[in-house]
Write a sequence for this structure.
């Protein structure tokens, strides 16, 4: 491409040739002058090598320096502010921030007005514990997301999973597994999930897909669950197999190790609370969002949903990550008891079928998501 023409660089400016042939950025301290390597020398004086109006060419020397006090009187420092990193590797320049900080060759902890990477970074639209960002970087990202939302005339809808959009159970014996498998084979919207060597049975709440379809027109949808990420991703794929609704916007227990499992915080989606007014939360558990001692309580954004229960207790252990942060234990592998009397199996089958009919009769009466759809689309 044709290089742009600038005036000669001066003290207090940084003018360097990059892969695009030209770039110009201001530096913060007057004693830092530009170098052709794209860094900044710590020095008192520099001599401009270009003339007023000269073109900036790739590889051209822009400034020369005379270092005083010996060969180590000056030190090159990276011009990258290291505003975002993944597992301590700068996302922009690829520097190892621990090594660079120890060597004193990069300004770690000086980037941004917030004083270094003190915030959990954002991957797309959700927080991720392996990402770190400066406050300045996060604020820019949040403003970009907010402007995109407003341009599309949408708000944010944060959705809990268990007991809000569905009910999941884990069989604890072979007999329970057989009963659940029988229901799965004959009942609509019942699915089998394999997560971390566990077999779960999930029943979707009535009208959930119609609800999500309607909400996606008005909101940017997020999943926020106290369950582990593998479970959250499996459920999200079940609900949204094409990825058009959630598009990877998932917050799980694995993503917020700094918060207890029984708590959820909206700053995992909006790090700065001045934009929380654009978010609504749907959850059956109000306590998990209640943080009265915080500067702003996310419970104010909550619409509490009637708790959805489908599976009876004698058919397994309900998946309820909020009540217990521990992982479930594998189900018993003991064989089912043999019938002692003729006809006992037929009697049990009839009793089981009657129980399933009662479950389905109660389930068809659940109109919670239909009512919420009407409320939120007005």
């Amino acid at each position: 491409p044709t290089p742009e023409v600038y005036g000669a660089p001066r003290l207090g400016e940084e003018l360097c040739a990059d892969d695009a042939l030209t770039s110009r950025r201001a530096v913060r301290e007057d004693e830092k002058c530009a170098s052709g390597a794209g860094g900044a020398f710590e020095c008192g004086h520099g001599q401009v090598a270009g003339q007023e109006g000269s073109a900036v060419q790739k590889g051209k020397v822009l400034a020369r320096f005379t270092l005083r006090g010996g060969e180590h009187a000056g030190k090159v420092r990276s011009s990258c502010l290291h505003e975002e990193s993944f597992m301590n590797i700068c996302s922009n320049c690829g520097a190892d921030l621990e090594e660079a900080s120890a060597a004193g060759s990069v300004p770690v902890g000086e980037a941004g007005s917030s004083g270094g990477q003190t915030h959990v970074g954002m991957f797309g639209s959700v927080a991720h514990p392996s990402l770190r960002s400066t406050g300045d970087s996060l604020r820019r990202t949040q403003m970009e997301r907010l402007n995109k939302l407003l341009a599309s005339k949408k708000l944010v809808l944060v959705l809990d999973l268990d007991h809000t959009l569905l009910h999941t159970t884990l069989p604890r014996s072979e007999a329970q597994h057989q009963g659940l498998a029988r229901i799965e084979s004959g009942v609509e919207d019942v699915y089998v999930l394999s997560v971390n060597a566990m077999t779960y049975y999930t029943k979707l709440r009535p009208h959930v897909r119609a609800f999500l379809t309607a909400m996606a027109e008005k909101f940017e949808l997020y999943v926020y669950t106290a369950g582990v990420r593998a479970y959250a991703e499996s459920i999200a794929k079940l609900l949204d197999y094409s990825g058009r609704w959630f598009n990877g916007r998932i917050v799980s227990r694995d993503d917020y190790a700094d918060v207890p499992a029984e708590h959820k915080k909206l700053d995992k989606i909006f790090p700065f609370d001045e934009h929380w007014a654009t978010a609504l939360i749907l959850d059956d558990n109000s306590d998990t969002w209640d943080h009265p001692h915080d500067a702003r309580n996310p419970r104010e954004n909550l619409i509490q949903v009637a708790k959805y229960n489908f599976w009876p207790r004698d058919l397994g252990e309900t998946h309820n990550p909020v009540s217990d942060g521990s992982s479930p234990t594998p189900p018993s592998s003991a064989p089912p008891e043999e019938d002692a009397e003729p006809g006992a199996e037929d009697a049990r089958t009839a009793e089981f079928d009657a129980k399933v009919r009662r479950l389905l009769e109660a389930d068809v009466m659940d109109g919670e998501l239909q009512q919420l759809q009407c409320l939120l689309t007005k």
